[in-house]
Write a structure and sequence with these properties.
The chain has 10 helices and 8 strands. It is globular. By secondary structure, it is of the alpha/beta class.
C-alpha cells in the first residue's frame, strides 16, 4: 500500500506554516515533507513533529538566493564554499528532525554556458556532500525538474539523473522521482516506474496533477493506475519509500480546501 506524505509548503495554505503540521495529522497523514526549514529553529519543528505524531521524510538543502531566482548551487563553479556551508546546515536540520533524506537542488544553467560544461562541478559537489551525509546516515536525492516550471534547470530527465547517480558512485545518493515533472518532460510514466524502481536508485516519489499541479485526480495522469504500478513493483523489489503530495490545492487557501480535495487519498487507505 503506498505511503503518502503531506508537502506542507503547498498543502493547507489557509494556515500559517507551523499550524500545517496539526492540519496534516488531522487528515490522517503520518509523514510530512516541505521545501525549506531554515526560517524556523530545528527544535521548534521537531516539537511540531513529535506533538502530532509525524515523521519528517524530506526537505531541500539551501538553494542559494531563492527569492532572487536561484534554484540550487550544485552545478555552479565558484560557489563551492557556499554549497558546502548549505549542506552542513541541511545536515544539522536533518539530525534534529530525524529526517533520512535531503534533496540537493542542481541549480540553473547560466546564460551562455552549456549543460555539459557544468557536469564535473555537479558531480564533485554531490560526491563531497554524499560523504558528509553518509556520516549521519542521510540519503541525498537528485530531482529532475521540468523546464516549463524552472527554465534552464540543470537536471530534467530520469535517464540523466540515473546516469549521474551511477557516476557519483555513492550508495546514499538516489533519485527523487517526481511524476508531475516526469510527465511534462518525458511521459511514459508507468514504464519509467517499472524501469527505475527495481534498480534501488529511486529514493522518493512526488505527485501532482498535470498540467495545473493540483490534486492528483485532476488532470491527464491516471494516478489510480500509477499507484497500482508502484504497489506492484514495490512488492516485487522491496521498495518501502514515501510518496510526497507536492501539489497546490485547487481550492487554494479556502478554509478546509486541502481536506476537501483528499477524496483521491481516502481510496488508498
Amino acid at each position: 500500500m503506498p505511503k503518502f506524505a503531506a508537502n506542507l509548503s503547498m498543502l493547507y495554505p489557509e494556515h500559517a506554516f507551523l499550524d500545517r503540521f496539526a492540519a496534516a495529522a488531522r487528515d490522517g497523514f503520518r509523514a510530512v515533507e516541505f521545501l525549506f526549514p531554515y526560517e524556523h529553529e530545528p527544535r521548534e519543528l521537531a516539537a511540531r513533529l513529535q506533538d502530532h505524531g509525524l515523521q519528517q521524510v524530506l526537505f531541500n538543502a539551501p538553494p542559494g538566493d531563492w527569492n532572487g531566482g536561484e534554484r540550487g548551487l550544485a552545478c555552479l563553479a565558484g560557489r563551492e564554499a557556499e554549497f558546502r556551508a548549505g549542506i552542513a546546515d541541511a545536515l544539522r536540520y536533518a539530525q534534529a528532525l530525524a529526517c533520512p533524506r535531503v534533496h540537493v537542488m542542481a541549480g540553473l544553467v547560466p546564460d551562455g554556458q552549456e549543460r555539459a560544461a557544468l557536469r564535473a562541478t555537479y558531480v564533485a559537489n554531490v560526491r563531497w556532500a554524499a560523504a558528509e551525509a553518509a556520516r549521519q546516515g542521510v540519503n541525498l536525492l537528485l530531482e529532475p525538474i521540468n523546464t516549463r516550471d524552472i527554465p534552464r534547470f540543470f537536471l530534467n530527465r530520469q535517464d540523466h539523473a540515473h546516469e549521474l547517480v551511477q557516476e557519483i558512485g555513492a550508495a546514499n545518493v538516489q533519485v527523487q522521482m517526481d511524476l508531475y515533472h516526469c510527465q511534462i518532460v518525458e511521459g511514459d510514466v508507468a514504464m519509467k516506474i517499472r524501469q527505475y524502481l527495481p534498480t534501488g536508485r529511486v529514493g522518493h516519489f512526488q505527485i501532482a496533477g498535470v498540467p495545473q499541479r493540483h490534486e492528483p485526480d485532476l488532470g491527464e495522469l491516471n494516478y489510480d493506475y500509477l499507484f497500482g504500478v508502484i504497489d506492484e513493483v514495490s512488492a516485487a523489489c522491496g521498495w518501502d519509500g514515501w510518496i510526497g503530495c507536492e501539489y497546490r490545492p485547487a481550492r487554494g487557501p479556502a478554509a478546509g480546501g486541502t481536506s476537501q480535495g483528499l477524496g483521491w487519498l481516502r481510496k488508498w487507505r
